[in-house]
Amino acid sequence: MRRIHPIALEFQNFIEDTIDYRIGVIGQVDAGKSALVNELSGTAAHISTQTDATRTIIRHEYGRRGWLLDFPGVGTAEYSPKQYKKLLRKTNIKHVLYVFSSKIREADEEIIRFLAKKKISVTFVYNKADTLTDVSGQKDSSTLKHDKDTELHVTFKRDLDQPLRYIFVSIKDDYGLGALRAALNPIFDDKDSTFNKRAGSAKYLEKFLNKKLNRLGTKLLSPGFKDVILKKAYRSIEEMTESHYSVTGQDEAAAGMEIPRAADYINRAKESDKDGKTSKEYIGRLASVFSTVFKLRKLNVVSFVFSTLGEIGIRNIFPVLKGTFDYAGEMNDFAREVLKSHRGEIIRKQES
Ligand SMILES: Nc1nc2c(ncn2[C@@H]2O[C@H](COP(=O)(O)OP(=O)(O)OP(=O)(O)O)[C@@H](O)[C@H]2O)c(=O)[nH]1
Ligand SMILES: [Mg+2]
Questions:
Q1: What CA–CA distance (Å, rounded) separates 218 from 202?
Q2: Using CA atoms, how far apart are residues 55 and 115, in angstroms rounded to an integer?
Q3: How many CB atoms within 10 Å of residue 147?
Q4: Is 36 part of any domain?
Q5: Which of 107, 159, 217, 227 could serve as 75's disulfide partner, Cβ 3.0–4.6 Å?
Q6: What are phi and psi for residue 61, nearest 5 degrees?
Q7: Domain count, the chain
Q8: Is 28:101 a contact under the CB 8 Å cutoff?
Q9: Hey, whose CA ends up nearest to atom 28 of ligand 1?
Q10: Could you tell me if 292 and 222 lie in one domain?
Q11: Are residues 224 and 85 in the same domain?
């Protein structure tokens, strides 16, 4: 497997969480939805004759591309159309495969009209194509399929503004699965192209870094930080920050800059703080450094200072806190450069 820098991996997860990678597999009872999902996700080597009725939604990985959600059948005693709609609303799915294996029923019509109204994209699948036979022997298979397509078209032409044709498959005969995969590809390609756009955009990079920096701010102002300050354990501030961003000195080349050192910023803050101030001034200045660096509410600092150090200690700890906040801001810049140079590692390739 390709090595991905841990911060790029974290950024990848962040972007992935903004995208819905699921396709719901819904449709008629006993149509072979579960068998189809198993087949597509590669969790079954052959068609199982002992498939239980699906009662809850089961999530399967679709290769590395996303997820297929195996739904229960439409229109059972347990799932009336009304309850089924509730289920669809709850999962908030945007794409479905609607699987048939027999003629269109009232429950199907009700659900498909609901999907159309909710602008949920539908791919029509007709499974068990092996059972599409004419008892009288007069119609050949392409005529039977044509009749099915006509039924679909006539039933939904007023509701859906899309080609109303089935993808015919037979899991039993291993037929049509390539065509079905080919129909799924553009859906996932579209999601991947959104992923690539976001992964390459300055907006999402800043969103991610802001979130990271805010989390760091919260960590720094934890009660345990008091000891760090009192013991002047600046190296431990660095360790915490470096592990927070998953960067080390080894990333300097990628970042094109030296990794910031907490002591440098703390010493600088000490230098520029020769003239004494009142406690109130100190807290005000700290709060403003904190809120400009972390873009979090000032209240954080004020309450931290009072609850852990008291007003008396502020004079001594001011440079340490100010230096640490400045250092954290610089580390965020360092992380930004590292991330930029490793962004290419998370690009998703299109398949169709
Ligand atoms: N002839 C034929 N039978 C199939 C095919 N695919 C699935 N089956 C059978 O159809 C039955 C139902 O399959 P499932 O996958 O459980 O169907 P389902 O749609 O998930 O059923 P529910 O979850 O109960 O709605 C099983 O006995 C399968 O073996 C096919 O392509 N041809
Ligand atoms: Mg099932």
A1: 24
A2: 21
A3: 13
A4: yes
A5: 107
A6: -75, 135
A7: 2
A8: yes
A9: 49
A10: yes
A11: no
Q: Which of 174, 199, 224 is the last residue of a domain?
A: 199
Domain boundary among 140, 166, 199: 199
Q: Are residues 236 and 195 in the same domain?
A: no
Mutate to test the pocket of ligand 1, among 25, 26, 30 (most ligand atoms within 8 A of CB): 30
Does the Cβ of 38 fall within 6 Å of ligand 1? no
Tokens of 69: 């959600």
For residue 312, give the H/E element and its range.
helix 310-342
CATH number at residue 150: 3.40.50.300
Let me know whether 175 and 92 are in one domain.
yes
The answer to whether position 5 is within a domain reads: no
- CA–CA distances in Å: residue 81 to residues 57, 99, 108, 164, 243: 16, 15, 8, 22, 51
Determine the distance from the C-alpha atom of residue 267 to the mean position of all C-alpha atoms in its chain, rounded to a whole number: 41
* pLDDT, one tens digit for every residue, the chain (352 residues): 568 999 999 999 999 999 999 999 999 999 999 999 999 998 754 444 455 677 789 999 998 899 999 999 998 988 999 999 999 999 999 999 999 999 999 999 999 999 999 999 999 999 999 999 888 888 899 999 999 999 999 999 999 999 999 999 999 999 999 999 999 999 999 999 999 999 999 999 999 999 999 999 988 888 888 888 878 889 999 999 999 999 999 999 999 999 999 999 999 999 988 777 888 888 888 899 999 899 887 778 888 888 877 766 788 888 899 999 999 999 999 999 999 999 999 988 877 7
Distance CA(253)–CA(229), nearest Å, equals 31
Q: End-to-end CA distance of the chain, in Å?
A: 23
- Under a CB-based contact definition with an 8 Å cutoff, are residues 71 and 24 in contact? yes
Q: Which atom of ligand 1 is nearest to the CA of 38?
A: 15
Secondary-structure breakdown of the chain: helix, strand, coil percentages, each rounded to the nearest 5:
60, 10, 35
d(Cα 235, Cα 221) in Å, to the nearest integer?
17
Q: Which domain holds residue 336?
A: 202-351
- CA 197, CA 311: separation in Å to the nearest integer? 49
Q: Please tell me whether residue 2 adopts helix, strand or coil conformation.
A: coil
